[in-house]
Amino acid sequence: MWSAQAHMPTVLAGSQTVIVKGDGAYIVTADGQRLLDAAGGLWYANVGHGREEIAEAAAAQLRTLETWHIFGRYANQPALDLANKIATLAPFEDAKVIFTSGGSDSVDMALKLARRHWQLQGQPEKLTVVSRNDSYHGLHAYGTSVAGLSFNRDGFGPGTLIPETLLIDQWDIEAAERTIRAHGGEKIAALITEPVMGVGGVVPPPAGYFERIKELAKEFGFLIIADEVVTAFGRLGTWTASERFNLEPDMITFAKGITSGYLPLGGVIVAPSVSRQFYEGADAPILHQGLTYSGHATVAAVGLKNLEIIEREGLLAHVRDLEPILAEELEGLRSHPGVKAVRHIGLMGGVDLADDVAGLAVVAELERHGVHLRNLPNNILQISPPFIITENELRLIVGSIRAALDTVLAS
Ligand code: PMP
């Protein structure tokens, strides 16, 4: 297997860790070590691992009808039900849901739809997609083209894969505005933004940031796409981060949290500002979207069960209760000599490690403490545990980071 984002000679030299079991907030390695999953896998294991009722929901659907596609006049009931359910959770009325197979799919879908929108609206010059430095939007062609992390964007020959893109400063809204004006704001089709930057280091927006983005979108007439692949379905204690920040996007991309990772699923929630033209009138155009597994029946059944669990167990409220605990714990870490900065919001935390501290060494030491964490690019620890984690376990994660840092600094 060619591992993802991996230096293969190192992997083949024996550094591979095989995970064989999941149980609530814990995972088990092939050599039998039980680890607290403080990263929630890749930010997906929101309801926790090993849920019997999700396995049952998948098995029941597989036995009835593994899937039927949703092309043209065909549909399957779980896909219809899940789309309707997601629409009720969206931060705008009359939401339409396009299904894909994951986050990168959803980004490419949303960005193509933004361009299609302006072609249909008689403004063919609106082609540019704006994204932010350090952002992550998946690794398909369009997501790569708008990548804000340069190592994901570089190395594909001159320019980018899709040429009409524009990077703006991560959070300095004045600098961003200057870049947009210099480019010609009227040429912009859409701005794509993670409400809280994830892979780029868990960076929440400064106060008032999205208000200014909305003003710019209004002034130049571009769409706002919230990339909520990490944040949708509860990571910030609200169904969407757009709701929490009153972002009022035209589209929301989602993936991970819709199934808590039990099966691959993604999609785009589309506001009427974009969808209406495809839904009304005999001469409404067809949007040429759709992947073989869009709206896969078994995947959708799992998504429905996952949302049911989040509601039944009150997990959004639990995340809101945990938010101040994580904040308190991480603030206590701020003065540690191995730490440069800490950031936190909802059940997301980032710890910038000091330059002389190797993140990989900290992660390895944490495993000895029974905690699995991820080291993001730029030497940042990612904390994003399953929503079901307890207050004590959350405190244990940060306490273990402190102990691991002490050990690494002393070595
Ligand atoms: N957008 C964001 C904000 C993400 O964090 C990710 C995945 N980490 C993606 C898109 C891509 O999703 P996937 O890996 O499911 O294609």
TrEMBL record:
Q: Superkingdom of this entry's organism?
A: Bacteria
Matches recorded under PROSITE patterns: AA_TRANSFER_CLASS_3 (PS00600)
Keyword Transferase present in the record's keywords: the answer is yes
Q: Write out the coiled-coil annotation as residue ranges.
A: none
Q: Which CDD domains match?
A: OAT_like (cd00610)
What's in the keyword line of the UniProt record?
Aminotransferase, Pyridoxal phosphate, Transferase
Q: Which GO terms describe its molecular function?
A: transaminase activity
According to its UniProt record, what is one Pfam family this protein matches? Answer: Aminotran_3
Q: Which InterPro entries match?
A: Aminotrans_3 (IPR005814), Aminotrans_3_PPA_site (IPR049704), PyrdxlP-dep_Trfase (IPR015424), PyrdxlP-dep_Trfase_major (IPR015421), PyrdxlP-dep_Trfase_small (IPR015422)
The family note in this entry says: Belongs to the class-III pyridoxal-phosphate-dependent aminotransferase family.
Q: Could you tell me what this protein is called?
A: Aspartate aminotransferase family protein
